[in-house]
């Protein structure tokens, strides 16, 4: 029986289809009987035209046994069938001894062997099926390998994409860390806004940014002036009510709408939180590419900026006697003369005056506009201490002068620090109506003076020429000045 001829041959009558095209119907029935033992019922054809018609209109069979006498009819030839040309049709050829010369026509056609006319076809059919089974098994193995290769390729592609994604994440994480490092370097700056400006100027991906905070009375959202070319000043927003616990949600929405109009789409809003219930500042950032916008860790950056904001506030709020040595006017003058008359027995000091006459005159012209003197005074001295990273004595002879004494060996560093500090200090923050000061240019004069009470008072009283020819014991100190606008 066929089912016993090859234990490796798996034949299923529901899927394995056999077609027989033989000139001798009796022989076809004998061969068919062998397949029927395995529950396979072959289709029998006597004419090539009928076989060709069914072949063209139905699914390709599993195996075709073709009589060499029936390989063509008229102009139609078996070798011209598409399935024969591409070797997708599985063929075996039947022949009788009188048809031996016709076997040459099978030589160029892919097939599973020859079946000679005989009384018993079992062995020949078994041999054909063994070759068929070996071929199908190899075909199956190839398919498995192809499927495995596809799976490996898909896995490799997925792995590549994951690695690429991780590479991008690592890239943007590295960018985040580098930006945070820049902020750490700026913690000796004047305030949060100034530190942010210095950092954002260095970040090449940021092509524009803006900043808004509440006015002193909490009635407006204001965007400060800036000389940074990346900074975009936003119009002030009247809120219609006083906000004492930070920028409420409705005010954030108003600011976002304005930022969208100024920057266009894809602007990132960072809410900066400090000691209050709601955010105390809003930072708007416009970047130069979509990947940076989507991949950068904005939430982490936002949290970090809030910590930096809190750091600057905490630094500013330290007690004055923890930061520097304040002297009232008479003690300050005494310190000057001790340095002049007892230079070998006292500290060797260097005197610098910050002339705020232009600011005082501006305040005087607007008596109805409140200026927060205490906040200005404390912030100026505390922030300078942070910027300078050293100690000094200071006094306020009047509202137009803040004067400082520092050790002589640190004079160059201090003078450079205070000139830069005075130039960048946010004087506008201490006016109740900050928009008023936005449009004004302030002249702040930073000047080094001889360490002498007489010279100092002469300068403060606008008689700077009085000390020009004085024979001072600390004549090595040169008199320099700079106007800071």
Describe what this molecule looks like in 3D.
By secondary structure, the chain is of the alpha/beta class. It has three domains: 2-141, 3-Layer(aba) Sandwich (Rossmann fold), CATH 3.40.50; 192-316, no CATH class; 320-484, Alpha-Beta Plaits (2-Layer Sandwich). 44% of the residues lie in helices and 17% in strands. The chain contains 16 helices and 18 strands. It has helices spanning 2-5, 25-36, 48-57, 82-85, 122-185, 192-202, 249-263, 290-295, 298-316, 320-323, 329-341, 357-365, 373-388, 411-424, 434-438, 453-460, and strands at residues 18-21, 43-45, 63-67, 72-73, 76-77, 91-95, 114-116, 206-214, 220-222, 237-238, 267-272, 281-287, 325-326, 349-355, 393-398, 401-407, 444-449, 481-484. Strands 13-15-16-14-17-18 form a six-stranded mixed β-sheet, with helices on both faces. A five-stranded parallel β-sheet has the order 2-1-3-6-7, with helices on both faces. Strand 15 and strand 16 (401-407) form a beta hairpin. It is rod-shaped, with a radius of gyration of 48 Å. The termini are far apart. Mean pLDDT is 81; it is low at 3-9 and 463-485.
């Amino acid at each position: 029986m066929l089912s016993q001829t090859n234990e490796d041959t798996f034949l299923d009558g529901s899927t394995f289809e056999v077609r027989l095209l033989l000139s001798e119907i009796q022989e076809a029935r004998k061969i068919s009987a062998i397949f029927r033992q395995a529950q396979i019922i072959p289709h029998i054809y006597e004419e090539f035209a009928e076989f060709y018609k069914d072949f063209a209109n139905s699914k390709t069979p599993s195996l075709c046994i073709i009589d060499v006498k029936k390989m063509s009819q008229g102009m139609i030839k078996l070798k011209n069938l598409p399935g024969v040309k591409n070797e997708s049709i599985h063929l075996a050829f039947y022949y009788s001894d009188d048809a031996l010369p016709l076997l040459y026509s099978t030589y160029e056609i892919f097939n599973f062997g020859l079946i000679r006319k005989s009384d018993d076809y079992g062995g020949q059919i078994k041999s054909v099926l063994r070759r068929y089974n070996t071929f199908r098994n190899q075909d199956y193995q190839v398919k498995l390998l192809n499927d495995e290769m596809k799976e490996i390729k898909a896995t490799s592609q997925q792995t590549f994409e994951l690695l690429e994604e991780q590479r991008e994440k690592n890239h943007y994480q590295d960018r985040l860390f580098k930006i945070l490092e820049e902020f750490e370097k700026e913690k000796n700056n004047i305030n949060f806004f100034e530190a942010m400006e210095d950092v954002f100027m260095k970040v090449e991906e940021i092509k524009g940014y803006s900043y808004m905070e509440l006015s002193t009375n909490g009635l407006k959202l204001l965007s400060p002036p800036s000389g940074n070319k990346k900074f975009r000043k936003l119009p002030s927003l009247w809120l219609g009510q006083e906000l004492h616990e930070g920028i409420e949600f409705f005010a954030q929405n108003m600011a976002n709408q304005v930022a969208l109009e100024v920057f266009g789409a894809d602007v990132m809003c960072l809410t900066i939180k400090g000691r209050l219930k709601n955010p105390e500042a809003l930072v708007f950032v416009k970047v130069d590419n979509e990947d940076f916008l989507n991949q950068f860790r904005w939430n982490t950056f936002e949290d970090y900026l809030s910590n930096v904001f809190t750091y600057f506030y905490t630094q500013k709020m330290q007690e004055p006697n923890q930061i520097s040595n304040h002297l009232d006017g008479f003690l300050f003058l005494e310190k000057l003369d001790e340095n002049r008359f007892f230079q070998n027995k006292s500290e060797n000091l260097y005197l610098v005056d910050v002339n705020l006459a232009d600011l005082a005159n501006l305040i005087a012209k607007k008596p109805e506009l409140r200026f927060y003197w205490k906040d200005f005074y404390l912030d100026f001295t505390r922030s300078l201490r942070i910027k300078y990273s050293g100690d000094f004595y200071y006094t306020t002879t009047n509202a137009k002068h803040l004067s400082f004494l520092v050790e002589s060996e640190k004079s160059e560093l201090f003078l450079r620090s205070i000139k830069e500090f005075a130039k960048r200090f946010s004087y506008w923050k201490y006016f109740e109506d900050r928009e008023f000061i936005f449009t004004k240019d302030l002249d702040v004069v930073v000047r080094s003076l001889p360490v002498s009470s007489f010279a100092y008072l002469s300068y403060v009283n606008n008689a700077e020429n009085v000390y020009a020819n004085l024979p001072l014991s600390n004549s090595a100190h040169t008199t320099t000045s700079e106007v800071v606008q």
